[in-house]
Design a protein that fits this description.
Length: 310
């Protein structure tokens, strides 16, 4: 059991404060019932109970459920009920007013929150009930700093041809903290490439694209992505560069080789992902450089599956 991972969640004050405010906005003391899906050590459930929720139902399939059980007992949370299973496995679950699930990753859907909340909205939520988070928006921006590219190009410094290994490195995705200065236009030209509204059914396969027409030359070394989650109206958690630090970071999508983009040329990226409990997370990205008339000059195709040894 990765208790250290759970410690990082507990230590993330930005995350905890935002989810606490979102719960406070919807809980009516003595009336509201809550389902905490992927409850971990039970922090959000304890928050909900303290805010006056009538009953709280915890769903946690991992070994940490045992820790949550002890936490509930230690805090005398008698109105909290723990089910040591994945919520999708629960037969005839109690209906609730609020479903909360903090099962977000650096790539927001890597813990399969889309599948989880599709099921929870259909089977757990009372009519007129609320899901937290409500929306996820994903952003992407070109990276103009060589820093991470140089790190991933260490294969070139050995004096030997290790290009096969380097290609695998560049078909991986990296969790990194980026400075806004490392992004095109300081990140101001970041684009939305995907949005999810948890009030309705969503596909676990996501795809989107973004393009930038450059006014001056730039070298593009890769792309950075991040997300913003609206937990409740006016309550947002963002993993964007320059925002308040959380335990989440940005993701860096490398290029096989840097793109030297001239003024009036366009650089574009298309991203595709699919996630499932059975098959995990698969992500692919394609970068293109086009001339001022839209003709393709260069195209690089990447796939996360190519970055793993068989």
């Amino acid at each position: 059991m990765r208790i250290e991972y759970h410690r990082t969640l507990i230590a993330d004050r930005v995350r905890n404060e935002a989810f606490g405010r979102a719960l406070a906005a919807v809980i009516r003391r003595g009336e509201t019932t809550v389902a905490d899906i992927g409850a971990g050590t039970g922090l959000l459930s304890l928050m909900a109970a303290k805010l006056g929720a009538r009953e709280v139902f915890l769903y946690e399939a991992a070994e940490v459920a045992g820790v949550a059980a002890k936490a509930l007992k230690a805090n005398r949370a008698r109105n909290c009920h723990l089910f040591p299973c994945h919520s999708t496995e629960m037969v005839d679950p109690p209906k609730v007013d609020v479903v909360v699930s903090e099962t977000l990753g650096n790539y927001p859907f890597e813990e399969h929150i889309i599948e989880t909340l599709n099921d929870a909205r259909a089977r757990f939520l009372k009519p007129g009930g609320v899901v937290i988070p409500r929306h996820i928006t994903q952003f992407v921006a070109p990276v103009v700093s060589e820093r991470i590219h140089a790190e991933l190009s260490a294969w070139d410094d050995t004096g030997f041809d290790l290009s096969a290994a380097k290609t695998m490195s560049l078909n991986n995705i990296y969790v990194r903290t980026l400075n806004p200065k490392e992004l095109l236009d300081g990140g101001a030209s970041a684009k939305v490439w995907d949005t999810v509204d948890f009030a309705r059914e969503n596909r676990s396969t996501r795809k989107g694209e973004a393009a930038w027409r450059l006014e001056s030359p730039a070298t593009i070394y890769g792309f950075a992505t991040w997300w913003s989650a609206q937990l409740s109206p006016g309550i947002v958690v963002s993993t964007a560069p320059g925002e308040a630090r959380t335990h989440w970071e940005q993701l860096y999508f490398p290029l096989l080789s840097p793109l030297a983009v001239k003024a009036r040329e366009t650089v574009a990226v298309a991203l595709r992902s699919r996630t499932s409990q059975e098959a995990g997370t698969h992500i692919a990205w394609t970068a293109t450089r086009r001339d001022s008339k839209g003709r393709s000059l260069e195209r690089q195709v990447h796939d996360l599956d190519k970055g793993f040894l068989p």
